[in-house]
Write a structure and sequence with these properties.
hydrolase; 15 strands; C-N_Hydrolase; single chain; hydrolase activity; C-N_Hydrolase_sf; 291 residues; Aliph_Amidase/BUP
């Protein structure tokens, strides 16, 4: 299959977990009705972004994977014949939790999960309190509509993560994400932050010759202190924007990707061919100094 239609669901969330799941399912149906074959939901879409505080009660939001949410979404995937990428708060066992994305194939089967590798710890993003770093490695999933790579939010700043996933054969890189602006900061800072976020991900498309799909949440949370900036987007393998969402509206969009373009751009811009892999071992050091 050379062409595939990807659906992005950019939505706001409320405190009620079931209401968010129900809403996401409605929007998956909307994307499928528009022709989507692979639908990506945003990071931790079943809840508000709870990592703004360190609160032990928030662990009650976690669930097993596979579990209730993947069961519900599997039924929808099978009914609609679509692949669903679902970012969830995983309870692995007592006291061990991950930020995890499950992939459900178009026949409803559970293909597996990716556990977020890079975990931030910033003001209003206290994820290290909740999430254990992923231990499954980087992952690709062979779906009915192509081989996809899934990374999660903070992973999107790291070229190493996108490179490894692309080298594993990913034909598209998907990034469920949750990032926003503090509402007390100035507009210039807002613009600079968003541009940096978009630029680094578009560079992953260019460097690896694969399309990138980034799906962010939208709306005010944290008692109005945080505006999640939406701005979800799709690029082709050259980093060209094919779709750009607004910063303040819920959106369901479907974009057709031509997977044959990767071969074209990799032949004309042969970055993979020209890598000097024998020189890269220092990348595994924390910092290159004399000690």
């Amino acid at each position: 299959m050379s062409k595939v239609k990807v659906g992005l669901v950019q939505m706001s969330c409320v405190k009620d977990k079931q209401a968010n799941l129900d809403k996401a399912i409605v929007k998956v149906r909307e994307a499928a009705a528009k022709g989507a074959q692979i639908v990506c939901l945003q990071e931790l879409f079943t809840s508000l972004y709870f990592c703004d505080v360190e609160d032990y009660d928030n662990f009650d939001l976690a669930e097993s994977i596979p579990g209730p949410s993947t069961d519900a979404l599997s039924a929808v995937a099978k009914e609609l014949g679509v692949v669903i990428i679902a970012s969830l708060f995983e309870k692995r066992t007592e006291g061990l939790y991950h930020n995890t994305t499950a992939v459900l194939d178009a026949d409803g089967s559970y293909l597996g999960k990716y556990r977020k590798m890079h975990i931030p710890d910033d003001p209003a993003f206290y994820e290290k309190f909740y999430f254990t770093p992923g231990d499954l490695g980087y992952k690709v999933f062979q779906t009915k509509f192509g081989k996809i790579g899934v990374l999660i939010c903070w992973d999107q700043w790291y070229p190493e993560a996108s490179r490894i996933t692309a080298l594993m054969g990913a034909e598209i890189l998907f990034y469920p994400t949750a990032i926003g602006w503090a509402t007390d900061q100035d507009e210039e800072t807002n613009v600079d932050q968003y541009n940096a976020w978009q630029t680094i991900q578009r560079s992953h498309a260019v460097a690896n010759g694969v399309p990138v799909v980034s799906v962010n949440r939208v709306g005010f949370e944290q008692d109005g202190a945080m505006k999640f900036w939406g701005g979800s987007f799709v690029t082709n393998p050259q980093g060209k924007l094919l779709y750009l969402a607004s910063h303040d509206q819920e959106e369901v969009e479907v974009v057709e990707l031509d997977l044959k373009q990767s071969d074209y751009f990799r032949k004309h811009w042969p970055f993979l061919r020209d890598r000097r892999i024998e020189t890269y071992s220092p990348i595994t050091k924390r910092f290159i100094d004399e000690d």
